[in-house]
Amino acid sequence: MLKLMRLEIRKNKLGSSLKAVIIANLGIIGFLTLIYFAERSEGAAAFATYESAFTIIDVFVRATFMIFASVWIAKLIIDEYKNRTISLMFMYPINRKKILVRSLLSSSCTLFFLCCYPMCLLS
Amino acid sequence: MTYILRTVQLTKTYDGHEVVSNINVNVKEKEIYGFLGPNGAGKTTIMKMITNLIKPTSGEVELFGHKLTNDSYEVLRNIGSIIEYPIFYDGLSAYENLDLHCEYMGHSDKRSIDEALELVNLQHTNKKAVKDFSLGMKQRLGIARAILTKPKILILDEPINGLDPVGIKEMRDLFKKLRDEYNMTLFISSHILGEIEQVANTIGVILNGRLIEEVSLEAIKASNPMNNSLEDYFINLIQGGKRYA
After folding, report:
1. What is the pTM (predicted TM-score) of this model?
2. Measured between CB atoms, does B76 come within 8 Å of chain A?
3. What is the band of B125 on the pLDDT scale with cuts at 50, 70, 90?
4. Count of CB contacts below 8 A, A vs B?
């Protein structure tokens, strides 16, 4: 199953999505910096507590990666049927249930990794 | 007589309409079987049932002496196929597509990728993505993928569609080479009767979902020595007796 997931990531070039993730992270950092300076210019203390800082980071990351999630799921699953590559997959000596499960797992794992990574990075 | 592929009373019904009726095809080992029939006769449906892409309504398919079931995945390791038209991961190169095929088929000999690309004259495509290939190049790549793992049987649906005359001749020679040197069995459907005539050992003619003839090419030629072209035979067969709807 792990091998199938690795192949899935390879054929859909999900590695190249890392660039998009880095750009999104830079955007989020930019927004956070903007909030910090805007608040400071008004004499208020931005990110006064860790809790408020994490809440704001969480909101940005969730919003951004919800969009990423939609795009990747569309790319991995819908495209497979639209381009009829699923019928190619069904010609391989692999259990069909496994083929469908690896599609969902590889997209979920990639998303989980890509969502956790910026959270850790920004925290 | 060893049959590598047999269908027994194979039938497929869509919405109560029988598109394939009681088909009995017998393909011998190491032969080229030409599967002929007009558009909509049911050739692709039969090929899909043979490759386990769709389930027959009734009847059965026997491959390598074993009945094909819903869980017959391992048998697919010995089949190379192009059904309807070749499908690829368009963003990847020819080599990457074949490499993926090797991985999915569990074929570890990566040298066979270069060998297959060379056999179909696509060795110089380098990193060009498949989406930039012409129809003929895609067709060649489809054949390269089908023969990559040296399967026992090749099931090719209109394999010479989109090829230029030079490409058609190359494919004809390749089919003969695969049969004679690699001992493969080929089950080919085509509309180009002249091509089938030059390579096939046995002909199966399907019309309106029914197999109306299965005969060796030698027998056709022997039965009518004065006018023995496959084209005449085919047209007489489907139009004679007012069988062509």
Report:
1. 0.81
2. yes
3. confident
4. 44
